[in-house]
Amino acid sequence: MTKTLVRSSLLVVVAVVTAACGTVPAVPHADGSAPVAVTVAPVVRVSRPAVIEAGGTLHGQRAVVVASRVMGPVVAVPVMAGDRVRAGQVLVQIDDAAAAADVRSAAAARVAADRQYARAQAEASAAASAATLARATHARIAALAARRSATAQELDAALAALDAAEAQVAAADAGVAAADAARTRAVAGGDGARAVAAWARVTAPFAGLVTETFVEPGAMAAPGSALVRVEDTAAFEVDVRLDESRAHWARPGDTVTVLVDAAGGIDERQGRITEVGRAAGVDTRAVTVTVTLETADGLRSGMFARVRLPGPAREAIVVPPSAVVRRGQLTSVFVVEGTTARMRLVRVAAADATGIEIVAGLAEGEQIVVSPAATLRDGGDVHVSAQEATGEAPIVRGDRS
After folding, report:
1. Are residues 306 and 238 in the same domain?
2. For the whole model, what pTM was predicted?
3. What is the pLDDT of residues 93-116, one digit of tens each?
4. How many folded domains does the chain comprise?
5. Does a structural domain hold residue 255?
6. Which CATH number goes with the domain that contains 263?
7. How many Å apart are CA 37 and CA 40, to the nearest integer?
8. Helix, strand, coil share (%) of the chain residues, nearest 5
9. Mean pLDDT of the chain
10. Which residues contact 54 (CB under 8 A, 6 or more apart)?
11. Domain, as residue range, for 243
12. What is the DSSP pairing of strand 304-319 with strand 325-327?
């Protein structure tokens, strides 16, 4: 009897001390475990901008396939895929023996034309001198004939000599013009021959990266045949297609988010819409939108990228990322019902700075556990230790999906 009184007294003392400290001890489970302390927050709807996402392949802002302009065997290909080249660097060398012969022939023709022009000028000078003498002779004979000191035959001879000299001057001038035209043709021929010879040295049109080579030494190059592909890697673009109903959300100059699938995961970058197609494709009914990325480091052509465009605002259920529990392929949150935690399977959408959007599984006004402990289980008892504020949000009635 005495022991029973002592134990009862001790229990009363413990109860009094506990009450004085202002805490209420958690009632243990039937199995002896105490309820899990949790922080909860109400499920609310918030205004969230819609996201329009479209995929495409990265490519350089400038990319060209360098083709041959002449026919001939390929002598050398001094570059390979992956090489960086400067503007004017030789990419492919085609046999230029015939072109070099044409250049020499054109040079010889130019020399001959220059000499012919000099000869024509000399003949014109001689004809001009002869015409001057004929004019002077005619003038003297005419003066003498006026004084009856020269016969009519002498005057006719002097006039005939003057006409012949002037005709010779005209012929010499024509010869000079013809020689000058021949010299011009020779100059043009030389320029053309040198241009054709230069085409045998296929060069890079701009500084960039060689992404593909299509020929090997010994192959025959023909006009129009592809030789090397060069891409300007100073800036990258991605072309995406949007259907007609969503194309109006893309405006040139807007900044958008670009997600690039890289080896280490998703590489998020910023881009700018540089071009929006004016017409939709006849077969796809889609509009092409070109986005230029702000940075190019670490990127390569052919990488897959997704462009996120801001769409119209909408209301959605959003929860903190810490509230979402992922176990394998299942995604869930804990909903507090009274003093019991219930695991609720949910379907999530994209996440952003406001949280993770829940598209199915939760209803407006339910209480969820913000950061569930590892020991929390479905059906377990909980003790709400704090209520987390979620900020102002429009109250919209929602049904559990």
Report:
1. yes
2. 0.53
3. 999 888 888 888 889 988 998 999
4. 2
5. yes
6. 2.40.30.170
7. 10
8. 30, 40, 30
9. 79
10. 240, 241, 242, 289, 306, 307, 309
11. 52-61+234-312
12. unpaired
